[in-house]
Specification:
Length: about 160
């Protein structure tokens, strides 16, 4: 198994790539949850596609989307340089990409990593209290923190066991 060192930043997928992936994913009767584009120290980018489906995502879903998407990306060539494609279920620590995702998981514990520090911190973990427009609130150590989706680098649900 290959191990890669990530430089620790993620960039947003360009709109044309988002639309291309959405078309392929929906053609396989799945829902596009989101796209992560992570810069690796060696060998370019990792393009990670998260998909979901009614009743959950299995290996066959991921394989079908990966095969179809790989063919489309080879023809259209929307990503500059080398990249590795990965298709995955959102998992228990589901990533949150959109305001709709945040709204769906109000009341859940989330882990949020920001692009830049707010109140001296870049990392927050707490209960997602609400979202209004582009702003959301989380309860961290008995303090309500108001943040904007524009500030978020990554956000994930914290699994409860």
């Amino acid at each position: 198994m290959a191990h890669f060192l990530f430089l620790g930043f993620m960039k947003k997928a360009p709109q044309h790539l988002q639309e291309m992936v959405e078309d392929v994913v929906s053609s396989q009767d799945c829902e596009l949850v989101g796209i992560e584009m992570l810069q690796r120290q060696k060998a370019g980018q990792l393009v990670r596609i998260y998909i979901d489906a009614p009743g959950g995502v299995g290996l066959s879903h991921c394989e079908a989307v990966s095969r179809q998407l790989g063919a489309v990306l080879d023809v259209e060539d929307p990503i500059q340089g080398e990249y590795a494609l990965e298709v995955s279920s959102p998992g228990m620590d589901r990533p949150l990409f959109t305001a709709e995702h945040f709204a769906r998981f109000v009341g859940s514990v989330v882990r949020v990593k920001l692009n830049a520090a707010v109140a001296g911190r870049k990392n927050y973990k707490g209960e997602l209290l609400k979202i209004e427009g582009n702003d959301f609130e989380i309860l961290v150590d008995d303090e309500t923190i108001k943040l904007s989706l524009d500030q978020v680098d990554t956000a994930r649900i914290v699994p409860v066991f």
